[in-house]
Write a structure and sequence with these properties.
Strand content of chain A: 15-25%
Distance between the termini of chain A: 41 Å
Largest sheet of chain A: 7 strands, mixed
Structural class of chain A: alpha/beta
Largest interface: A-B, 37 and 37 residues
Shape of chain A: globular
Number of helices of chain A: 12
Number of strands of chain A: 11
Strand order of the largest sheet of chain A: 1-2-9-6-5-3-4
Oligomer: homodimer
Radius of gyration of chain A: 20 Å
Chain lengths: 372, 372
Amino acid sequence: MLPSAESMTPTMHQVDVDLADRSYPILIGAGLLLAPVISDRLPAASKALIVTNDVVGPLYAHRLNALLGRRYAETIVLSLPDGETHKNWETLSRIHHVLLQQACDRDTIIFALGGGVLGDLAGFAAATYMRGISYVQVPTTLLAQVDSSVGGKTAINHPLGKNMVGAFHQPSMVLCDTATLVTLPKREVSAGLAEVIKYGPISDMIFMDWIEENIENLRAGDQAALAYAVRRSCEIKAAIVSADERESGRRAILNFGHTFGHAIEAGLGFGRWLHGEAVGCGMVMAARLSQRLGLVEAAFVERLTNLIRNAGLPTVGPNLGIGRYTELMRVDKKAASGENRFVLINGPGHAILATAPTAMVEDVLRESCRDS
Amino acid sequence: MLPSAESMTPTMHQVDVDLADRSYPILIGAGLLLAPVISDRLPAASKALIVTNDVVGPLYAHRLNALLGRRYAETIVLSLPDGETHKNWETLSRIHHVLLQQACDRDTIIFALGGGVLGDLAGFAAATYMRGISYVQVPTTLLAQVDSSVGGKTAINHPLGKNMVGAFHQPSMVLCDTATLVTLPKREVSAGLAEVIKYGPISDMIFMDWIEENIENLRAGDQAALAYAVRRSCEIKAAIVSADERESGRRAILNFGHTFGHAIEAGLGFGRWLHGEAVGCGMVMAARLSQRLGLVEAAFVERLTNLIRNAGLPTVGPNLGIGRYTELMRVDKKAASGENRFVLINGPGHAILATAPTAMVEDVLRESCRDS
């Protein structure tokens, strides 16, 4: 499926994130890591550190390393253990340790090769090493390509909450090689589709129509379908981030399904459900809350629920107990002045941020977890 | 010496740090913490967390707490152990822990009440909690009032290097109550004077004349002299920071004496010498290097050395060994592309950034450590 390096002339799409002096391109295409021409586009630096994990590294680190060898005088590779449980201070400190040990200065650039967890972690290492160095996101999961690699959100988990310690630090570039998705386990493809589906209800119902028509192709790993899904998702996300970099307002609509989803992840213990699985189920809950508030019809909720189910995602929440759910949602960082705000669908294709009566949220939880 | 709260109409000077949407005022005056009028100037927030240490807290936390009680619905106080050895991840995580435990959201504001170590630490907690919340610096040491509280540099130490993990995160306000300096130990007054003296050679020789004339008053804790030193230092620093927020160029001149100084601190183990003591001695070394490069006369080096000595600061470096010094300086974060740059005095009142031949640096170290 992949052309050889010699014959490589990949079809590449560029989406720009427009943030004044922090603007950057997202390059999307199948086989970009094997395209020597990409090396000319890479940001200038004296040295590069590839941060990857022990699952993705063996598959793709050699490709990235060869590409960077064309651009940088020195490239170091650091492989970390995979998984959400390692998205913590200890692992972050290992990255800083290597940077210091190798006498890396502010002119060093980090390449984050892996999924969302790795990107958040390596991005936060770049945000905090010597008060900030450059980095490039090289996402290798669908979830990271359509969502977490774009927008500059970096973080690690705190024992008391997911992503609670972090920074806004924009990458210098995002390099999405959709060919890396061929090695992605089915379960992770589905998890990534949750964040693709998200863009429909919050912003673009034409895209939602397209996803519905192509859901089987997407799950089967069809390269053309995946490339389009990544591109359209990045376009929507780039526009939203460009308008509200630090999530002081509108950007929060990207968290559709996430308040409920985070509660599921935290309640079960991080890693039991994939982030995308929790978000998929969380979107069903948020859609039901929107319906109870009279913002959308039952038919829309059913349509979205079906699509989430057809993507291979759970639509029924784990039975954590209503009290535990509401407790976990209270600490969620989107809470403003102690009151929980939700991303709600105000007519298909339009999202708003609003509070909801506690009793109504509890009814939604009872309805959404009853079969578990 | 301090007027009562009722009679309080302190003389207040305001210096502005001009950084577009990140601009903020530095308020300077004796007794500001006892002036109810200040509470109207404080930034809006739903909740405040005072972060202080077990030395400063017992002296001034009640004053700040009373002031904040006029402005915020809730104020929490967190007291941490004092000292450079606690400027690490464990202490940072304690701040995050309290914020999460108290369900603090992004609308919470941190007040950093203490010296430079505390300000760096609490500032970095603000920079990283939920990807950044507001904070106010309330410096209670001379060093923090004239230098570290202004400019948004926040950090913690890494086992392999001082201030290696941090962020640029501007405070919303700096509140310098010079009355808090009356409780400052003599040794810390001297350490603070190192950073005051610094502004002379790098930027303002008229200020250097003034410092020379007033050095005894400053060491004796004369309120008017200290207030002027704080004000003029903040004016110079604010102008430099406003022109180069993230130290991509000119701002680095504020590190005069710091490359040598950091090596002294790291070589002895952090905390053995106070930061200002190491910087004082480092300025002597940097001035000597400037002289060897033909940038200043011997008379200037002698004049600066005398002033540093008269401030109660060491002018002879500890004997770490030349190899250890150069090794420690190589990791210093001002190194660009692996080569060490120094802040040098290019004629009194003018600083430049330049490299220097290794042999010359070693000669300076031999000359500057010979008596130890």
